[in-house]
Design brief:
The protein is 38% helix and 20% strand. With 198 residues, it is α+β, with helices and mostly antiparallel strands. The radius of gyration is 20 Å and the shape is globular.
Length: 198
């Protein structure tokens, strides 16, 4: 009886061990938000639209240059993430949408990105719309609030990073201020890339 138990225990452990490599390769459960079609401009004044991301996995967040609270750590964390992805040989677009488009011109946004060492080859700082448009876009596409309080130069907005799949579906959100381990991003992106190849 003891021998049988030992044998079954060994078999169970073997199954667990052999299944471990697959765990990190499972694509995350999708949030299922469809990103609405858009056509804005980036830090170079170049037109950027949903068509540019078709067939690509990408990352997104919402920030503004005059932010004195969560945006600096978010942008710093996105820079760390961009660097880590580069080290992993992963090149995917990153889009930071301005929630204060009246202030954030392409020139202002470019200077802001430079402060954080952003690689503009893959990281786009996007503006070129009205305040009402970005508020509606953020709500419809990412289910996140963007709102300008009365008598304030600050903007209320979410602090998440969003992973978007090749079909423009928001798959997962991450805390952009208290950044999860970078391995989590790498594993999720690799899993999505693997799923695309099936």
């Amino acid at each position: 009886m003891i021998k049988k138990l030992k044998l079954s225990g060994i078999i169970f452990i073997a199954i667990v061990i052999f299944s471990l490599p697959a765990c990190g390769q499972e694509a995350p459960n999708s949030l299922g938000y469809q990103v609405e079609p858009f056509q804005f401009v980036n830090q170079n004044g170049t037109s950027l639209s949903t068509e540019d991301f078709k067939g690509n996995i990408w990352l997104a967040d919402f920030i503004f240059t005059n932010c004195d609270d969560i945006c600096p750590p978010m942008t710093s964390n996105m820079a760390k993430l961009q660097k880590r992805l580069g080290e992993e040989g992963i090149s995917i677009p990153i889009v930071s949408f301005s929630v204060d488009p009246n202030l954030d011109t392409p020139e202002t946004f470019k200077a802001y990105g430079e402060q954080y060492g952003a690689d503009f080859e893959t990281w786009n700082f996007v503006t070129g719309y009205t305040q009402a448009e970005i508020e509606q876009f953020a709500l419809n596409s990412f289910k996140t609030l963007v709102q300008v309080p009365e008598d304030s130069d600050q903007v209320i907005h979410g602090s998440y990073f969003y992973l978007v799949d090749e079909n423009g579906i928001v798959v997962k959100s991450y805390d952009g201020v208290n950044l999860p381990p970078l391995d989590e991003f790498v594993n999720d992106i690799k899993a999505l890339q693997k799923a695309m190849q099936k």
